[in-house]
């Protein structure tokens, strides 16, 4: 991970490999070119107030994600200035929003891979801004090269570049408690989110359910989290028919991992449930060619829950959090569940399996019912559940469904506060009838149209009566198959982690609505 420091040093005399400054797009009141953002005054003065003109000559506009490099002015210890676009100028006196700072810092950190030290002179109006920049740096500097020749877990592979080693946040206040707390929070959240990215990026021959459970056990021991792992025998004894049914075709047995973080000052109990299909072939309902190459990412929900629980423990949040990781590998074999089979779930309900590729809802159903037995104040499940949600919301936005309108809004607000694009989705009652089964209590498939909402309605059947619940379908943003953008890398993204942590913080403050 990139080392972070807060610094009040003067820019010209700072020893670093690069100085990062912000540039915004010209507004209606100040049209015609890029505008140098606060924090870059010393650099602008060294150009006799003409830095904006120099940048415009080099083609800079201040657009989001834009990077312009130029030699540092004479007399500066750092040899390079990196101007990064912040997007539109904020309204007068409103300052730059956290997400704009996060994205700019992430873009700059990625552009500076292979660099030992960079000084970030982005606009910092307060401690929250410092936290946003810190988070953006740590997330943007991420790389996963452990499987490349001569690579290592630090991210340096053969002919590759190591991530930015050190970032100094200029304008920060090293002795100010609020600034220090903001950077410490950003560090804990980003490190755990990057751990989730690592898990999502790991090849499925190395990350099966047993291996995932072992990683969770090790982290739990390190951070004082209680952990319980149910293997095949324990799952069979307990009657977890959904998890067992999905894992029946694999040589790697399923697991249900329970992570319990408790605070002596907690007044709320939040349960988090994650879908952890370490590889999804579709089972007997085999996925067609072209649809299974990235299915190592089908455990992104469990990775997000795992990371969020550990982050909450590191932050010492005053809330009790129970994380449930429903882990299985969905494979076709002579022992695999068949279309037409009926599974008896942990809740006692029976499910007719019409499509074995609708497996995530089956493992989640058992975990949701297990979570319900503790009667938490709220349950949130996270899953790469349906392609239908990707069709509805695209690749960067996750859907939120819930059995309580106020709670759905609260989860959406937490996502917005964390900087994760999300959208509230309904649970139309008329779609429930499509899952009626002549053989069992319910089928695992319903109407094709509105498939993401159908999946949400299925999950609702396995939430205990009177318990507030929300479902996050992260199928779109969990894995980025395109090029990197902002602080988001190619591959696993860690989608959902920051929303869950923010929701836990709200719960610690007594607010879950």
Structural notes for this entry:
This protein is an alpha/beta fold and 513 residues long. The chain is built from 14 helices and 20 strands. The protein has helices at 41-46, 51-57, 98-111, 127-140, 177-201, 209-222, 232-238, 241-247, 300-315, 360-372, 387-393, 405-418, 451-460, 497-508; strands spanning 3-7, 18-25, 35-36, 67-71, 80-88, 117-121, 166-170, 226-230, 255-261, 269-280, 320-330, 342-344, 350-352, 378-383, 398-402, 422-424, 442-443, 468-473, 479-480, 491-492. The strands form 4 sheets. An 8-stranded mixed sheet has the order 8-9-11-10-14-18-15-16, with helices on both faces. Strands 1, 2, 3, 4, 5, 6 and 7 form a 7-stranded mixed sheet that branches. Helix 5 (177-201) packs antiparallel against helix 9, helix 9 crosses helix 14 (497-508) and helix 12 crosses helix 14. The longest helix is centred in the middle third of the chain and has 25 residues, at 177-201. It is elongated. The mean pLDDT is 95.
Please compute the radius of gyration using only Cα atoms. Answer: 24 Å
Query: Treating each run of at least 4 consecutive H or I residues as one helix, how many helices?
Result: 14
| Residues in helix, % | 25-40%
Q: What is the straight-line distance between the termini? A: 35 Å
Going across the biggest sheet, name each strand in turn: 8-9-11-10-14-18-15-16
| Percent range for β-strand residues | 15-25%
- Main sheet characteristics: 8 strands, mixed
Mean pLDDT: 95
Catalogue the unreliable spans. Answer: none
Q: What characteristic shape results from the CA principal axes?
A: elongated
Q: How many E-type strands?
A: 20
């Amino acid at each position: 991970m990139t080392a972070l420091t807060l610094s009040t040093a003067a820019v010209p005399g700072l020893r670093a490999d690069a100085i990062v400054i912000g540039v915004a797009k010209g507004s209606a009141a100040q049209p015609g070119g890029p505008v140098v953002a606060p924090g870059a005054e010393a650099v602008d003065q060294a150009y006799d107030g003409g830095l904006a003109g120099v940048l415009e000559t080099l083609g800079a506009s201040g657009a989001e994600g834009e990077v312009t490099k130029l030699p540092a002015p004479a007399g500066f210890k750092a040899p390079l200035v990196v101007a990064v676009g912040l997007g539109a100028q904020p309204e007068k006196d409103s300052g730059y929003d956290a997400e704009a700072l996060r994205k700019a810092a992430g873009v700059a950190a990625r552009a500076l891979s292979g660099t030992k030290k960079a000084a970030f002179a982005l606009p910092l109006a307060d401690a929250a801004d410092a936290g946003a920049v810190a988070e953006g740096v740590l997330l943007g500097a991420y790389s996963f090269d452990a499987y490349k020749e001569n690579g290592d877990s630090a991210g340096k592979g053969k002919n590759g570049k190591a991530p930015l080693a050190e970032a100094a946040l200029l304008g920060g206040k090293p002795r100010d408690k609020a600034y220090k707390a903001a950077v410490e929070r950003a560090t804990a959240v980003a490190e755990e989110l990057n751990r989730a990215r690592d898990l999502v990026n790991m090849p499925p021959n190395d990350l099966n359910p047993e291996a995932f459970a072992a990683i969770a056990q090790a982290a739990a021991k390190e951070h004082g989290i209680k952990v319980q792992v149910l293997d095949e025998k324990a799952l069979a004894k307990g009657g977890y028919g959904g998890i067992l049914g999905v894992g029946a075709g694999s040589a790697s047995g399923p697991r249900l991992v329970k992570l319990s973080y408790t605070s002596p000052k907690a007044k709320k109990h939040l349960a988090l449930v994650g879908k952890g299909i370490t590889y999804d072939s579709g089972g007997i309902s085999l996925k067609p060619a072209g649809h299974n190459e990235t299915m190592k990412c089908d455990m992104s929900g469990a990775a997000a829950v795992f990371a969020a629980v550990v982050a909450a423990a590191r932050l010492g949040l005053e809330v009790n959090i129970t994380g449930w990781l429903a882990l299985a590998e969905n494979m076709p074999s002579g022992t695999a569940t068949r279309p037409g089979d009926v599974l008896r779930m942990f809740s006692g309900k029976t499910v007719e399996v019409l499509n074995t590729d609708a497996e995530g809802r089956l493992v989640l159903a058992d975990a949701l019912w297990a979570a319900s037995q503790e009667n938490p104040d709220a349950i949130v499940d996270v899953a790469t559940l349906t392609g239908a949600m990707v069709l509805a919301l695209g690749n960067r936005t996750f859907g939120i469904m819930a059995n309580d309108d106020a709670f759905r809004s609260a989860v959406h607000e937490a996502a917005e506060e964390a900087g994760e694009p999300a959208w509230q989705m309904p649970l139309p009652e008329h779609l429930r009838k499509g899952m009626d089964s002549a053989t069992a209590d319910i089928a695992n498939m319903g109407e094709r149209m509105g498939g993401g909402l159908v999946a949400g309605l299925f999950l609702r059947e396995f939430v205990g009566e009177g318990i507030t619940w929300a479902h996050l379908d992260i199928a779109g943003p969990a894995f980025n198959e395109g090029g990197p953008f902002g602080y988001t890398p190619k591959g696993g993204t860690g989608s959902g982690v920051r929303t869950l942590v923010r929701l836990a913080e709200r719960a610690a403050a007594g607010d879950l609505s």
